[in-house]
Amino acid sequence: MTVRSICLHGPESTGKSTIGPRLAAQFGTPLIGEYGRDYAEMHGTDFAMADLVSIAKGHDMLTREALARGRYPVILDTDPLMTAVWADMLFGWRDPWFDAWQGCADLYLLFDIDLPWVEDGTRMFGRTAERQRFFDLSKAELERRGVPWRLVSGVGEARWDRVMRVTG
């Protein structure tokens, strides 16, 4: 089976946005950046559920466009499954759109919380208990959906080496 898409999944400040461009360069394939970050930088982080649905739909549209071009694997810096976890974190519930969404990636890389949290102006959940809850919800979403996933942990080049082992 051809892996058409690899999604970087997990809490804030775990290295997804650092690994994403490097992984896309390694494969010579497209990277769909974190649409939610762009949205937050334009509109702020005082999200309503409608904002999260808009973020998820925007990211899904960009992903479908990249997949249609046929250069695989498309690397996704998060996707609507991650936005659903954000809904769980922010509101304790999610819009039904998230559970109806069917565009899951072929492989998910779940990034561990073994890196220090760094404030960047858009991040919200830096306390240890919040990070653990975010990680646990992220993992539970992958398990609930039954999608293939691999854990990515390690610091520095060890993290990259793990990504290469599970995607190579």
Structural description of this entry:
This protein is α/β, with parallel strands linked by helices and 168 residues long. The chain has one domain: Rossmann fold, CATH 3.40.50.300. The chain is built from seven helices and five strands; from the N terminus they run βαβααβααβαβα. It has helices spanning 16-27, 35-43, 49-68, 80-91, 96-100, 128-145, 157-167, and strands at 5-9, 31-32, 74-77, 107-111, 149-152. The chain has a five-stranded parallel β-sheet, sandwiched between helices. α4 crosses α6. The longest helix is centred in the middle third of the chain and has 20 residues, at 49-68. The protein is globular, with a radius of gyration of 15 Å. The mean pLDDT is 91.
Give a short overview:
By secondary structure, this protein is α/β, with parallel strands linked by helices.
Number of contiguous helices: 7
- H/E series, N to C? EHEHHEHHEHEH
Termini Cα gap: 14 Å
Give the spatial strand order of the biggest sheet. 2-3-1-4-5
Q: Which structural class is indicated by helix and strand composition?
A: alpha/beta
What helical percentage do the residues reach?
40-55%
Low-confidence stretches: none
CATH superfamily: P-loop containing nucleotide triphosphate hydrolases
Based on CA inertia axes, which overall geometry fits?
globular
CATH architecture level-2 label: 3-Layer(aba) Sandwich
**Which CATH top level class fits?**
Alpha Beta
Number of domains: 1
As a percent range, the share of strand residues is 5-15%
The radius of gyration over CA amounts to 15 Å
> Would you tell me which CATH topology applies?
Rossmann fold
Main sheet: strands, sense, barrel:
5 strands, parallel
The strand count comes to 5
Mean pLDDT: 91
